[in-house]
Amino acid sequence: MSRAPTILRSKSLHTIENSFRNPHFSGFYPSFLSSPVIPPRRSHRRSSSLRRSSPCRRSDVPSPSAIIPAGSRLLPQSFPPSAYQNYPIQIGLIANDKNRVLVQKGKDEVEFTFQVPEESASHNQNSRPTSPDNHNSPDQNVEDYDEGRSHLDYSSPETRVKGRGPILPGSPIISNNSDPEHALEETHDDTPDAKGSITRHKAWLVAKGYIQQYGVDYEEVFGPVARLETLILGLEECNPTKFPVEPELKLAKVDGSDSYYQRKGGENLLGYSDNSYSVDHDDGKGTTGVILYFNGRPVTWLSQKQPTVVLSSCEAEFMAAPSAACQAIWLRGLIAEITGKEEEQVLIGYDFWPAFAKKVNTEQQLTTITNGLVLLTSIINFVELWVLCMEKVNEDGSLDFKWLKKKGVGGKNKEVQFYESFIYDGVEYMLYDCVYMYKEGLPQPYIGKLTKIWERVDKSKKVKVHWFFRPEEISKWLGETKTLENEIFFASGGGHGLANVNPLEAIAGPCNVVCISKDCRNPQLSDEELKEAEFLFYRTFDVQSCTILDKMDDKVGELEINYIFNRKKGEKNIPFHGTIDIKDENPNTINASETQKIITEIIPNILKEDPKGDPQDNGIPNLLKRNMESDMSNDQPSKKIKSVDKCVESGVVRGSEKMTDMLSVKSKVDKDEMKVSIVPVEKVENRKRDKTPTGFDKLHDQTLKKVKSDDKKTTEEKPIQLKAAQDYEKSKVDRKSKQEVKLPADSNTLKTSGISVTNENEKNGKISGKVTDDLEGKKLKKTKEDASFKVPDSKKICINTNEKKLVANSALSTEKVKSGILDSHGNTNNMEVEKKESGEKKNELSMNKSFKLSALSTDKDKKNKYDVFVVTQRPNAERSSWFGQLPWEDRLKSAYYHETAILLHNLKPDFTSGEVEDIIWHAFKENCDAKILPRTAVSSPHYVQALIVLKTKEAAQRILTKLDEECLMILNGRPLVGTPCPSILTKKDYSFFGHLAIDKARFQNQREDEAVFTSHFSQPNTIEYDMAMEWRVQQLRSEKCWAKLHKNKEIRQEQVAERSRPASITSKLQEIQSEMDCN
Amino acid sequence: MEEPSADEIYAAFEEKVKRTIYIDNLSHQVTETVLKNALNQFGNVTKVQFIPTFFTPCNVYAALVEMESVKQAEEIIQDMGDSTLMISGMPRPVRAQKAKMEMFDDRPKKHHKKIACYWMDPSHQNFDAVNKIKNLTKKHAAEVAYLMELQLAEEEMLHNQQSETLKANFKKYELIDGVQTDGTLKHLAARYGTQLDDY
């Protein structure tokens, strides 16, 4: 807008045309002729090289500031209004020689003639419509109009010169008609004088034949298009007289009765809008009517059909109202530009429903006008009104915002208020919550973690967001790294892309992100929570080095690690989750226990037993030994066995005493104490382990080979676990459960220990194992979903030796607990009885109980392993990623490339893709994408194949080997066979024979080909027909071949199967089958 | 509540299968529009669905065409069996047959069907036999691939042979044409005093 525009004259019309063709033509209108377009919303954010800058709000409701900045954009702020106040309005039209514009102005008819002066070097003073003399002068020279003379650009000489290319000395395009010096003089003539009026004009230079050149003389060309309003307004401003349009304008009403809008006097700019609902009976569209008055006279009016069909008259009104607002915005800018003073407010009358009128809720009132029209003339800034209207349209009234918890003040003058939580759009957000941040134009919102929330003095709310990366976003650096489903990466390192400050309004919604890091500091989650989570992460992405890091230090970016990991249970919304549990069990504890001296022991425990469970809680050695015993009964037996340390034994003795005697201790206290005790035991164990590695190894040697490696894993986990207090004890169990679910290869972990225990047991000849304590393992296997809930329970059971009730509890709560568990607790009950009976043996029992338990569990496991399992819908089958996926072909291609695709054979023909996915889930605990290969004429009619795409190469590899080494049988079917995905067909591999063309003929027909009907029956007397018959023969032959092949295959397989199917299995299968059919 | 609807879906699907014909021996250039146009001559095509081909052993380009009625579908199969329909090229005719349920990759689930699986105990007496089946399956997969290869080779042979034939024929006709157009024929006719018919 600040650029000096080019002089355009009718003479050089061709120049204009060329300019329009010029790619650089920007279609820029002179400011006061510009159309009433709302400036686009701009998002104010910084950009970083790596990633997005701040996203903006999801909703379409623009924030008031985004719509229109303070003051109108149409008016440059830097330009003092006084500078042009003296200027009369100039009106100009680009015209060819036929063009004449007639404008009635008062009694006079003002004629704007656009004539082409031929070679006239008219030095006319600019004729302006304002000066009456000039109006009447015959040679009025409107062509002198140059739209750029918007008075803005002549203030600095540079711009002037820039816009005046032709007269620069040495300019190559100066024509013969004028010598440069003269031209230069002319330039000076063109400047405004002291009063600001223009004395000379340069247009004549162009008329004389100077041609300006793009890039040299000008850069922008304006197509001067005048809106009628401009003319009217201009006339209004110049010389208000009677206007042809009556102030009382009639707008059509649908009911036939005429209504008149009463013009209110006094205000400067006043607008009314109304609509007629569904006037057009053909397409049901309504009509919008808008009229704007300036100084009591209508300047803009429109009555136009609405672009879309609306459902109610109210909605139609919402459509009409903004168009009035739009008009008003533009008009305001225009008026401001002309008059130099900005309208403070614009009154716009809307015909709203009374209900809505109330909602506007400003201290303004409604005015009722004729015929039941409710005219809302809120004297508020119309922009705000407009926003309000828009908000109403979006039915987004819930965008409320409320600060909740303050955190503190900061900044230089303590003017910044920090917060911990707030409510936005009906959702409560807390510090360190994960949120979606929406950015326009992106298919997926960004994910970030709120690390700071504050409000500045100017009431702008800001959040600092630490980013997560989706794998797609950093695919460049991911390379071969495999990612889990829904895995994202936390930004680490420093610099660009780590975190950004964003307006709070950019938050699009909460996002459930959980950390599945195995890190001991990370509270582990239950499966249920994992299922609920939208995203997982355990790795970070260093934004500096652009690498994936598996480890997290104490600080990632500027964040403490404990804010990155999952929140501990106790810190969640239900603050003392743990204690609630405890209370539930109180009665049991009391029943079971009698007390004595224990209180003394308990006190220190309590002190340390912080419900929040600081990870640093770990090392309290003296406590450890003392409390060791209670845990002995429940924890990994293999380790305990070799801890034949006296110290431990004494501890055990004491513990058993305690167990029996805990009576009147407050149950809660008791409970707490128990929890604490868990920690130390492990610690002791570990110490033991370190000291006596040989014994340990021996132990392992006795166990199975496979078991061994697994066991190592468990033990490796141990030291980590030590650090944590009781919360971690819980989470450990969770973690185990997770492992069970995730890595079935690892599923023997628990068993392992069990086996080793049994061995040890047998050696000692103490007890024959029967009962299982390893509830964890088994339950997890059977009822994975509930693992997180149950396992802690079972833990507690052991501690308190209250098996009965608690197990019952857990059984109730889960419903899925199978008989094995019931058995186990039955047995433990017995044991408890025994324990009470014989004081001497208590100790042993408590120790051996676990051995037995685990022993049984191994049996159980083994049995379960080969049990028939019914494939149900896998738990998260319905959860599909809601951001869409690549097409299957593409996924398969990349899967083939990454070796994650497997071809499954021997599936029953009636399986669906979803069922295959279910089978894989149940058999391997892997989520996959399956696709049954559709049968074709050449594929076997008996069994189908399916392609599955796994998440990782490892998973695919594992499934392949497992399918290979072991046998996954489908009931009444065949063993499932997996082979790596064969090479994917690419475009060039498509080979199709049998379509012949004669080169010449094809060439001739090329053009016709597209249009020609491309199918036909061949006639029997052609060469084509003969050839077709040859193909037919070939087709039949291959058909026969395939049929025979498949038949043979089938027979062979059936033979083998028949031989292999023993009566026992068959009957069993039939049994199950019939049972299932009954269901 | 769900079950009847699932049943209905399945019934609708079965109905759809009956209305659908399976067409193969298609050129890879055949698009949906082409196929639709081709079969609209016989009836009204409601839907065309190509069976995706992913890898070489099942290099069959085929499509499922759903017609408006079962009768139409049957008629088309009959027609196309009797004579040879060329689509997007010649002389290899396309082949049509009734569609089978398994040809649809988006077939719905039979609601009462339940799947059960088990891992076979390696100590089980049949473990070896089952392993045998597995090996057989793999072998068969290889056989299928090989047969496909054979078929392709055969097709290629036929193709080449026919293209030779066609070329020869074309040459022949061109020669005849040339003789006619350049006046040689007339000369010869004059020379031998024979009457030439118009042409």
Outline the structure in words.
Chain B: Keywords: RNA-binding. The complex is a heterodimer of chains A (1079) and B (199). Chain A is of the alpha+beta class and 1079 residues long. Among the domains of chain A are: 102 residues, 2-Layer Sandwich (Nucleotidyltransferase, domain 5); 31 residues; 163 residues, SH3 type barrels (Roll); 93 residues, Alpha-Beta Plaits, CATH 3.30.70; 30 residues. In chain A, strands 12, 13, 16, 17, 18, 19, 20, 21, 22, 23 and 24 form an eleven-stranded mixed beta sheet that branches. In chain A, strands 7-6-5-8-10-9 form a six-stranded mixed beta sheet. Chain A is extended and about 100 Å long. The N terminus of chain A is likely disordered. Chain B starts with a helix and ends in a 7-residue tail after the last helix. Chain B folds into two domains: 98 residues, Alpha-Beta Plaits, CATH 3.30.70.330; 58 residues. A four-stranded antiparallel beta sheet of chain B has the order 2-3-1-6. With 199 residues, chain B is an alpha+beta fold. The interface between A and B is large, with 103 and 91 residues.
Topology:
The complex is a heterodimer of chains A (1079) and B (199).
Chain A: H1 13-21, H2 64-67, H3 82-85, E1 100-105, E2 108-113, H4 132-136, H5 157-162, H6 180-189, H7 203-207, H8 228-238, E3 250-251, E4 259-260, E5 269-276, E6 287-294, E7 297-305, H9 313-339, E8 347-351, H10 354-360, E9 366-368, E10 374-376, H11 382-393, E11 401-403, E12 406-410, E13 416-419, E14 421-424, E15 427-430, E16 434-437, E17 446-455, E18 461-469, H12 475-478, E19 487-492, E20 499-503, E21 507-510, E22 513-515, H13 527-532, E23 535-542, E24 547-549, E25 555-556, E26 559-560, H14 561-564, H15 577-592, H16 598-608, H17 621-632, H18 637-642, H19 646-661, H20 667-691, H21 693-702, H22 705-722, H23 726-742, H24 749-764, H25 775-782, H26 787-800, H27 803-814, H28 819-837, H29 839-865, E27 868-871, H30 888-897, E28 901-907, H31 913-924, E29 928-932, E30 944-950, H32 953-965, E31 967-970, E32 977-980, E33 995-996, H33 999-1011, E34 1015-1017, H34 1023-1060, H35 1063-1078
Parallel strand pairs in A: 5-8, 19-23, 22-23
Antiparallel strand pairs in A: 1-2, 3-4, 5-6, 6-7, 8-10, 9-10, 11-14, 12-13, 13-17, 14-15, 16-17, 16-21, 17-18, 18-19, 18-20, 23-24, 25-26, 28-30, 28-32, 29-30
Chain B: H1 2-19, E1 20-24, H2 32-40, E2 45-51, E3 62-67, H3 70-82, E4 85-87, E5 90-91, E6 95-98, E7 115-120, H4 127-181, H5 184-192
Antiparallel strand pairs in B: 1-3, 1-6, 2-3
